[in-house]
Structures are given as structure tokens and as C-alpha cells.
Amino acid sequence: MASMRDIKRRRASIQSTGQITKAMKLVSTVKLQRSRTKAESSKPYFNRMYETIASMLERSGAMDHKYLKAGAGGKKAVIAVTSNRGLAGGYNNNIVKLIMATPGLTAADTRIYAIGRKGRDGLARKGYEITADYSEVINEPLYQDASDLTNELLEAFERGEVSEIYLAYTSFKNTVVHIPRLVKLLPVDREAASGEAGDEPKARALMNYEPSTEAVLDMIIPKYMSSLIYGALLEAVASENGARMNAMDSATNNAEEMLGKLEIQFNRARQGSITQELTEIIAGANAIN
Amino acid sequence: MADVMKLNVITPEKQFYEGDVTMVELTTTEGNIGVYPNHIPLTAVVAPGVLTIHEEGEKKQASLISGFITILPDSVTIMAEVAEWPDEIDFKRAEEARVRAERRLSSGEAGLDTLRAEMALKRALVRLELR
């Protein structure tokens, strides 16, 4: 049986770990609330953008546009949105696993645009090529960051270096449910987009484009991408804090449970040592008589 | 003036404006346009300019830097990347940006990103116009 001193030391260490996890949980709860409001207030833009694109593509039919068809050859680009800090349960690892489990996104022909250090390191270990690292962005996502990244990706797309662009992030459903998702950004998936457009009659009205349909698409598709990336960043931050809150909550619970067990062990050890001492005294007294 | 339409101005951060309006004026890449209710359906690209919202008996102005506009007979949606009400604009900063952009344009040094400087100047001028 472990000695009293060992148990005492163990208990003190668990107790202080428990205090830290409890504090971290409180911090991420506050952060979660903030990032959640932010993610929710950007939703209208995001949704409206999606509707606009969907109804445009639906009406533009068989239009031939550079952003609507896959580039020949070239690698696939994946924007991997993770966090800079760990201790968030499976949050970061889920994204890495999602990318690895997707057929076609093998280490050999995928370029990673990493947002978040943890995902970057995880993917680099698996042999993925990290083309760019925007890890700073996840601390405080700005719309400008999303549009900078979009421009860089579009340039690579136009140069023929990448043929498809994907976005891997964790979508925030509610405080406990976060779903890792992989979304295809380019070429714009016409089937998927028009499938969800809904059949709102007014959206089908004949639309005119100024200066021209191509020019408007040239302009809107980058904005569509930036808004998707921006929305993904905000949701990822909310998910990260949610995941960390859950992880820290269960860590605190585990610490409390362990403390309870150690308490019992400690009491047993204390009682054992008293009993032993008593037996020794009695044995000693008997020996004298 | 019973004729109104719904106007929605949305930025990535928030719902910027929502309400019934009688007319909207703004600048597109093709020039200034004014939109009344029952306009033909139109999608256009927004150029930096002043957005003027005419509500019934009231007029509001805001800066609108980039984005695009979708016009339907009974509603107008502006997807703005950047839009500010006059009280959100830092006029001192805009003034400085204007001076800086003008200097850069007139210096004519080699390797100057003229397009970027011109855009910066345009943005600054739009903001200053609302002062």
C-alpha cells in the first residue's frame, strides 16, 4: 500500500491540476459566448451569399467560367482550420483525421494552407506539404484575413498550381456538438449549390447583370469564397472553445473523482498506520512484562 | 408615398441596415444609380461611394466601399464588404489616408502600385464626403 506521504503528495498535485482545468473551463466558457455571438451575427451575410450564388448558378446554366471547372492537373489545396493551442479534446485531431480519411486527398498531391498550429504540425507529421501558414489568424479572425487568403488561393488556381480548393473546419452546431466538415470551394459545385437553393419563386425571376454575367461572377465568386472562409473561421473559434470547455469540464470531474478515491485510500493508510503503531506498542508492553 | 421596398444591407460582421425605403442611391462600377421600388431584377458590382437611403420623410447616409447589390422588384439586398455610418468613421484617419495616397500618386516613383493608391484615395474621399 502506498505510504501516507505519497498519497498526500499525489493528492496535492491532482488538486492543483484540477484548479487549473477548472479555471481553463471558465475562461473558455466566456470565450465561447463571445465567439458564438460573433459567429451568429455573421450568419445572415453568409446565408445570403450562399443563396445569391446558388440562384446565379442555377440560372446561368451551362455557362463556361474559369471558376466553374476544375483546373487540369495540379494539386489539391486544403485550408485546414484548427487551433493554436491544444487541450481541446479531439478537436484538432478530428480535422487531421478528416483530411486523411478523404479519398483523393493523399499526402502526395495535397497542399495544405494551415490556419492553426496544431493542425499544421499534425498534418506535417503525416507527410503533407504545408504551403502556407496563417496560424496567427485564428487568434482574432478578420474578414480581411479571409479575403487575403482567398486572393492567394485564386492566384494559385489561375496559375494552374492547384486544381481544386477545399476547406476543412469544425462547424459549430451547439455547445456540445461540433462537426468536422470538408467543403469544396472551387470549382464551385453547381449540383450541390443549386440543390439547396430551395424553390423560392422570386429567386427565379429573370436577373440582369451589370456590367456582364462574367464580370459579376468574377467579382462575386472571390467574395463567396472569402465569406465561406470567414464564416468557417468564426465557427471554428466557437467550436474550439466549446471543445475545450467540454474537455476541461470532464478533466475537472475526473480530478474530483480521483481526489475522492485518494481521500479514501489516505484514510485507510492512516488507519492502518495507527493500528500498526498500536500493535507495536502493545507488543512492546507485553515483552516488558 | 406608399411605394416602399425592403432594403437589407449586410456586412460580414452584422446586419448593417434593414427596413422599408422609398429610394436607394449608390455607386456601381457602371456609375451612380438610384433604385425605386419595382426596378427590374439586376445584380451589379458596387464601387466605392456614398450610400443614400431614403426612408419615408427621412434620409440616411453611409459609406459603402465594396460588395455587390441584388435588386428585385420588391427588395434590394446589398452585400457590403465594408460599410460604415458617419459616426463610425474616423475622419482624422481618413484625412491622413487621403494625404498619403495623394502624395504617393504625385511622387510618381518607380514600382508604385498605382491601382492600390488610387483605391485608397477613393476610399478616403468617400469617407470624407460624409463629414
Structure, described:
The complex is a heterodimer of chains A (289) and B (131). Chain A is of the alpha/beta class and 289 residues long. Chain A has 2 domains: 4-19 and 252-284, Orthogonal Bundle (Helix Hairpins); 26-246, ATP synthase, F1 complex, gamma subunit (Pyruvate Kinase, Chain: A, domain 1). Chain A is built from 7 helices and 6 strands. Chain A has helices spanning 4-41, 43-60, 91-101, 117-125, 143-158, 190-195, 213-288, and strands at 75-81, 110-115, 129-133, 162-172, 178-186, 208-210. In chain A, helix 1 (4-41) packs antiparallel against helix 7 (213-288), helix 2 packs across helix 7 (213-288) and helix 3 (91-101) packs across helix 4. Chain B has 131 residues and is an alpha+beta fold. In chain B, strands 1, 2, 3, 4, 5, 6, 7 and 8 form an 8-stranded mixed β-sheet that branches. In chain B, a hairpin with a 2-residue loop joins strand 7 and strand 8 (75-84). In chain B, helix 1 (91-107) runs antiparallel to helix 2 (114-129). The radius of gyration of chain B is 16 Å and the shape is elongated. The model of chain B has no long low-confidence stretch (mean pLDDT 85). Chains A and B meet through helix 2, strand 6 and helix 7 of A and strand 5, strand 7 and strand 8 of B.
Task: Give a short overview.
With 289 residues, chain A is α/β, with parallel strands linked by helices. Helices cover 60% and strands 14% of the residues of chain A.
